[in-house]
Amino acid sequence: MFKSFHNRAKFAVVVVLLFVLSLSVSMVGAQETVFDIDAIIANAGGECQTPSGDPLIIGYLPDFSEVGAFADVPGSQAAEFMAELINCAGGVDGTPVQVIIQPGDALDLELTLRAAQDLVDAGVHVVLGPPFSDVGLPLLNVLGGQIPALHVASTEIVLADPSIYSFIPSFIDEVQGNAAGEWAYDNGFRRAVTLSSTDNPYFNVTTAAFAEAFVAMGGEHAGDYSFSVGDDDYSSQVNEILSLDPAPDVVYTANIMPFVEIFAGQLRAAGLTEIQLVGPDAFDATRIIDGGETTDGAVYTTHAFPTEGSRLEAFLTAFETVKGEPLTPAFGALGADAVALVAQAYLASGKQLDPIAIGDAITAMESFNLVTIDSATYQTADGVVGYSIRSVILAQNVDGVPTFLEERSPADYSE
Question: Tens of pLDDT along 203-254?
Fold first, then answer.
């Protein structure tokens, strides 16, 4: 009897061990499921594997008004295309991706909030938001910390709050300003002036960050001059700069086209032809390259650049091949970044179609792969932040052609 019990006990132990081993192998297999973004892009135009089942639903609340269209028109195009590519490649480990676009309008907040509620009512798992905080913050009130928000083209730190699942897929204004200030000093410039505006934090946060980094490197900040967005005369600012002795060799402003072109033209007319013009991603977004000789040589920070052989180049080529038209590079691809990030968070959550689980996964991910750059993270030595730690691209307008200068990694600029 004892022998029989002993044998049964041994058999039970073996069964338990086999179950544990099977479970362990199963878990390892789940952990090894990889979101291969390069393979997904490479499959564009190829044979599709149609996924089935309940979809991962991503709501997009773009701002198609004159305020945010520069980013959200190409961003929404890229987001939809990224979802198409994922689905053609079999979905996110078999789960289809659905992007619902519900346009808002920064000039009509009531309409925008109704659109946000429509997305919530549609059962979205994540919402992709418009560029600016004057719409982004009210959007977060609608979501109530129950649905993650990715503010696709925003660089405003006020929208970065992982405690309510509010994330910025790219860098923030402090970072791009720091990167530009350090670039200026590293390239021999020693005396700077800035132009800033209180119309929106973007127009002064970037400027202050540039000056802070430039001075920390050993440069001199000789003055800051105010403007209002939409000004078409900068003669008073130019006269102030002209009176400085010695003359500054670099000027930084976050102003937008066509107004920055007017400012640059007045600088030239005053004889300040050697001063280097530097700015943030607004230069890229509003096409500094269209300023002709007046803005030739301007340097700016941006989110991405399609260098030869890069993932972004492959994505842009795929888009143009399939859609028959080009995509705005940096700001368009940010929409693809957001969809790719959500897909990876869904995998990291254990494929839970649950907004909270996906939000927790975004917060916990060590890193994620993007279209605009190879990888980024929300993790820092001090904990999780709501903006991604990623490279900043510096580019230059050379004869009307965007030209790559360098990529500054997080180790190179102040965080």
Answer: 999 999 999 999 999 999 999 999 999 999 999 999 999 999 999 999 999 9
| 112 CB-near residues (< 8 Å, 6+ apart) | 61, 63, 104, 105, 106, 130, 135, 138, 139
Antiparallel, parallel or unpaired: β 220-226 and 191-196: parallel
CA dist 296 and 265 (Å) reads 11
Measured CA to CA, the distance from residue 312 to residue 285 in angstroms comes to 17
Give this prediction's pTM. 0.88
DSSP 189-253: --EEEEEE-SSSTHHHHHHHHHHHHHHHHT-EEEEEEE--TT----HHHHHHHHT-SSPPSEEEE
Give the model confidence (pLDDT) of 34-59 as tens digits.
Answer: 899 999 999 998 899 989 999 999 99
**How far apart, in whole angstroms, are the C-alpha atoms of residue 246 and residue 149?**
48
Per DSSP, the residues of 270-325 read TT--SPEEEE-HHHHHTTGGGGGGGGTT-EEEES----TT-HHHHHHHHHHHHHSS
Q: Sorting pLDDT into bands at 50, 70 and 90, what band is 33? A: confident
Using one digit for the tens of pLDDT, what is the confidence trace for 271-301?
A: 999 999 999 999 999 999 999 999 999 999 9
Provide the residue type at 122 as one letter: A
Query: Does residue 407 sit in helix, strand or coil?
Result: strand
User: Which DSSP letter does residue 148 get?
Assistant: -
Q: Is 39 exposed, middle or buried (0-12, 13-18, 19+ CB in 10 A)?
A: exposed
CA distance 126 to 143: 10
Residue 189 token pair: 């410039």
Q: Locate 205 and state its tokens.
A: 């946060």
34 touches 337 (CB < 8 A): no
Alpha helices in 2-108 (DSSP H): 2-31, 37-42, 69-88
Beta bridge partners of 126: 58
How far is Cα 178 from Cα 411, in angstroms, rounded to an integer?
12
Angle at 67 between CA 64 and CA 69, to 5 degrees: 35
- Is the peptide bond between 258 and the residue preceding it cis, with omega within 30 degrees of 0? yes
The contacts of residue 22 (CB under 8 Å, 6+ apart) are none
Give all domains of the chain, ordered by start, each with its CATH number: 51-171+306-380 (3.40.50.2300), 174-302+395-408 (3.40.50.2300)
Position 248, amino acid: P
